[in-house]
Amino acid sequence: MTLWRPGITGKLFLAIFATCIVLLISMHWAVRLSFERGFIDYIKHGNEQRLTMLGDALGEQYALHGDWRFLRNNERFVFQILRSFEHDNDDDKPGPGMPPHGWRTQFWVVDQRARVLVGPRGPVPRDGTRRAISVNGAEVGAVIASPVERLTRNTDINFDKQQRRASWLIVALSTLLAALATFPLARGLLAPVKRLVDGTHRLAAGDFTARVAASSTDELGRLAQDFNQLASTLEKNQQMRRDFMADISHELRTPLAVLRGELEAIQDGVRQFTPESVASLQAEVGTLTKLVEDLHQLSMSDEGALAYQKSDVDLIPLLEVAAGAFRERFASRGLSLQLSLPDSLRIFGDKDRLMQLFNNLLENSLRYTDSGGGLHISAGRRDRSVSLTFADSAPGVSDEQLAKLFDRFYRAEGSRSRASGGSGLGLAICLNIVQAHNGRIQATHSPSGGVSITVDLPLERDLQRDV
């Protein structure tokens, strides 16, 4: 036999419903207590006023008659006086010792010797309310009423029971209404949570197109928006992973096909095994090696596995060393290399990774700049950052191509041939290096007709990252 375990809807319903029950019962007892105390105080105050009025009236009658003989065994006379106070009908005939309508107590009239003149049989209560009857300054008797609390519990028991039944009936009806209102309220409050649960299940099953409706602006609404953003990111990452694998297979297929073709030609005797053929094979192997190395560098930078040993670095010597290493290669292609640099620009960064960044940018310009043009490197300070600009000459690219330059395996010449371009990973690695230095890199149109790549690196020391 399995125990019933309520879900989150049941738990929320029980929590709200239990709170309503506790509040209803607490209010019931509070109202009952307040009613009983207030009702007794009301009766006590009214009876005290009536006792005072009755004592004054009996004092006047005593002064007229001179003694209490007119009152002995004449309860009707007293009740007529009381009815005159209450403005009741003369047909209202109470029982012996009981006052007319409006009273909730018994009373006695006694003379100066404490002998009972009017009142029910039995001893006069000592704890009752007593009002003296005075004539010409002398006490000639008293009016005594039984305690209000005692008579309220005895004579008004039916009224009290009726009030209790009515109170509990109100509690029962309120409980039923609370249950009817709480259940749809709990379901309505948890409807966004259930949508999030269903969306999470779809997401866990690999359906990255799952989205949930954000129907509010509260915490659940913001959670739904965050869920949709997470699903969108996962969907985008999945598409990028598929594209990445397709690009890798495409990039590896071309040099492997060339290698296979040349080896088969040598094997079939179509081509002689000469130093020239070996050099060609080595060139293709070098291309594959470069591609694999770029993939390795990119994967490590994506995962943060590249070791960044940051310190105070002067960028100017690094730029001059990198430009000096490429100057001869630029000259062999008929390209000029110009530098417009200040004396010093110091930042907090990794010297080796910054050198890799500059080499990749120089290599990119060398591969994609037509002969007769050149590359101009400039640097300077801008607010609280260092700005480096690598602007080359024609050919240029379109606005659409500018937005894709830092995508992996993208080459702007429009051909997938590796004859003129590299692996298409150099600028992607540059992007990761710049982001690791809390900087920003962007590509724009160069004034000389080519592409201008700007790198902004912060001057202040950021948190050092040693991986």
TrEMBL record:
A single Gene Ontology CC term: plasma membrane
Compartments it resides in: Cell inner membrane
EC number: 2.7.13.3
Domain Histidine kinase residue range list: 247-461
Gene Ontology MF term list: ATP binding; phosphorelay sensor kinase activity
Membrane-topology descriptor: Multi-pass membrane protein
Domain of life, per lineage: Bacteria
Pfam family, one: HAMP
Enzyme class: transferase
Transmembrane segments: 12-31
Catalytic activity: ATP + protein L-histidine = ADP + protein N-phospho-L-histidine
UniProtKB keywords: Kinase, Membrane, Phosphoprotein, Transferase, Transmembrane, Transmembrane helix, Two-component regulatory system
Protein's recorded name: histidine kinase
